[in-house]
Amino acid sequence: MRFDEINVAICDDDENIIKILYNHLEKYKEKKACSFNVSTYLSGEELLESSFLNECDLLLLDIEMCSINGIELAHIIRENQKENLQIIFISSYDKYMKEMFDVHPFNYLTKPISENKFFDALDKYIRYCRKTRTVFTYKVGREIYRIKYKDILYFESTKRIINIYAKEDIYSFYGKLDEVELEVLEKCFYRIHQSYLVNPEYIRTYSPRSVTLENGFTIPISAKYKSNFLQMQVEQ
After folding, report:
1. What pTM value is reported for the model?
2. Which residue, 123, 114, 116, is CA-closest to 90?
3. What is the pLDDT of residues 208-222, one digit of tens each?
4. Does domain 6-132 have CATH number 3.40.50.300?
5. CA 151 to CA 136: how far, in whole Å?
6. What CATH number does domain 141-235 carry, 3.40.50.720, 2.60.120.620, 2.40.50.1020, 3.90.226.10?
7. Pairing verdict, β 170-174 and 161-166
8. Phi-psi domain of 159 (left: phi exceeds 0; alpha: psi -120 through 50; beta: other)
């Protein structure tokens, strides 16, 4: 699974908890091949003053903090920041459940935070990202590029090169088609060949042996993927 860097903020007034969460993120990154850009904060005031908040995708937020608590902080963030910032609350108690609903948290974890429960929460977040993302991202060197899924006709794998055939142009990067397939699975791209992933929105005609796209290009359907592809056509 490939994702461009996910910006994660950890806000907790306990440095030990911050270290635990940071280590959990590092282990998850190694296990799942994700990329995190992590920034840590010891108070809500410190977080609010940070420019990183504007770029943040996921906030791991302690509720019981001095001065301004996590729920109060979440209200301020929801009033002033982008709605797609997801918040995972962290607390030693369950008594805040009703208060949390107003700020639409993504998840809730209780202390002590087990690695398994933390990994489950991140798995859920990654699945959410897959479903809600409208763009495919890829890297060329240190640069990150984005292209809308709706503009992609198909992906082609040639050795270690992935070619993206879009409406207006062809883009290339180093990668594996199996990893691309995992990322676009929720977007319903069809694997019809060892070397091809196709956007069904651009299939003009098809037979048991091949599909023809709106641009006139014909792609073969291999025996390995034929039955699955034909079944999906029946179910549409």
Report:
1. 0.65
2. 114
3. 899 999 889 999 999
4. no
5. 10
6. 2.40.50.1020
7. antiparallel
8. left
